[in-house]
Amino acid sequence: MTGGSVGFVGLGNMGSVLAGNLVAAGRAVVTHDALGPRRSPEGAVHVPAVAEVAGRTDVLVLSLPDGRACEQVAREILAAPERRVRCVVDTSTVGPAAARAVAALLAGGGIGYVDAPVSGGVAGARARTLTVMYAGEDEACSRAEGVLAGLSDRRRRVGDRPGPAQALKLANNFLAATALAATSEAVAFGLAAGLDMATMLDVLNESSGQSAASRDKFPAQVLTGRYAAGFTNSLMDKDVRLYLRAVAEQGGATAIGEATGNVWERFAQAEPGADFTRIFPFVDGS
């Protein structure tokens, strides 16, 4: 094993792969998940409580669905009777305000916090091409450096305090959500006009309308009928709502954001928990 022990709380589609990456990197990994040990990667040790993870590890990684869950876990870490953890790396997408709140909560117990959301999907996590955008104070980032390296080969520090990485992740996911919704409408239009989807994608990807949606999501998930990118419409709806809330707090423009948010809200309400690439048949009406 290399480096100190690492805790991991939250073993969903993304978290289970990231925890596995840490195991593969030679770290001793202690995991906890609300659903039990079934998603814990081989080579990790699963324990029944957050407090036990906090008592056995130096750095603890979170991969949770929202800010409320992160705050709850932070409180459980602080309440651990034999707490050892000194730094929390939060890969969840929770928004800048929640990141700052959790960081302040942990700071009261002498624990550093690194805001470290990720982008690139489950496939990117497996290939170690996932982008980890992170922000935090120097001491916390230094303590977390080896763990961040274990998560992915692509990392970029974007700020010296918690919050900026969340802002960047929300901007990224808003653009991804907009591109996927817009590409769905454009492809549906082309099909109705008699075009072939594969031909459309080939030409779009050589033209100015190309995006990650046309280059990746449509060829791999929509054209093949797989619809298994590993990210739900409910989570995308949550992320767009977080983006709109953060922009509104700054008094920024939201016209396009509100239109995008409306589409994802309707899709999430109609088919909660569906893979987010299924927005194409939702938009297409098929």
Describe this structure in words.
With 286 residues, the protein is α/β, with parallel strands linked by helices. It has helices at residues 13-24, 50-56, 67-78, 96-107, 121-127, 138-151, 164-192, 197-204, 212-222, 233-250, 255-270, 279-284; strands at 6-9, 29-32, 45-46, 59-62, 87-90, 112-115, 118-119, 131-135, 154-159. The protein is globular and about 65 Å long. The termini are far apart. The model has no long low-confidence stretch (mean pLDDT 96).
The averaged pLDDT comes out at: 96
Helix residue percentage = 40-55%
Give the oligomer, counting copies of the same chain as homo and different chains as hetero.
Answer: single chain
User: Structural class of the secondary structure composition?
Assistant: alpha/beta
As a whole number of angstroms, the C-alpha radius of gyration is: 20 Å
| Major sheet summary line | 6 strands, parallel
**What is the ordering of alpha helices and beta strands?**
EHEEHEHEHEEHEHEHHHHHH
The spatial strand order of the largest sheet comes to: 3-2-1-4-5-6
Shape: globular
Number of DSSP-assigned strands: 9
Spans where pLDDT lies below 50 across 5 or more residues: none
Count the helices. How many? 12
Strand content: 5-15%
From the N-terminal CA to the C-terminal CA, the straight-line distance is: 51 Å
